[in-house]
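Quick one:
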Amino acid sequence: MRYIAAAGLAFFALAAQADTLDFSGAICSAADDGSGAFQSCSNFSPINQAYGDSAGADVSYQASPGSANSMYYWADSYSGMNDVAFGDTNNTPTILIVPTAGNTVTLAGFDLGSWPNADLISQVTVTDLAGGTILLNTGAITIFGAAPSHFAINATSSAGFSIAFGPEGYNVGIDNISFTAAAVPEPATVALLLAGLAAVGAATRARRT
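Output:
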């Protein structure tokens, strides 16, 4: 009977899909809007808008707020980080992580670095798209060149998140965006699972008696 309980827990584990956007590999496109096939990256290549998409979440990149242009790739020297995404000069690049129908997204965190491993001033804003709740607004902060700055969010949303940094979003870049998309179980499925677990518990107590 313990196997039945384990299977119930495994149901929830299998419904979640963890992802980390580290901007490595063939993730770029020839077109500035990120359309077209994936190809290998060189400095200033646009990030393919399909990079990071999955059955549970859609990811999109804006070089500046509301822009159709994707963010760009750079190979190194952002506070020691390699494979980084950045935006337009004197602007605020924005990344949207939106769950697909029937899913939620949990944003764990991300790293920012500054080029060329120099201290720069920027601002970071993370918004829960469900109601526009601001989860993080740093105001003007220093992104140090010696090591990446990590921002832990650890929040779950049914509508997704906006990650914006700038107006120094050109020489400040983002990396290691960690998030998990998880299916929201149907009420009938949850009820059946809970009933099954309750039956397992009752049988275990009867056995002990």
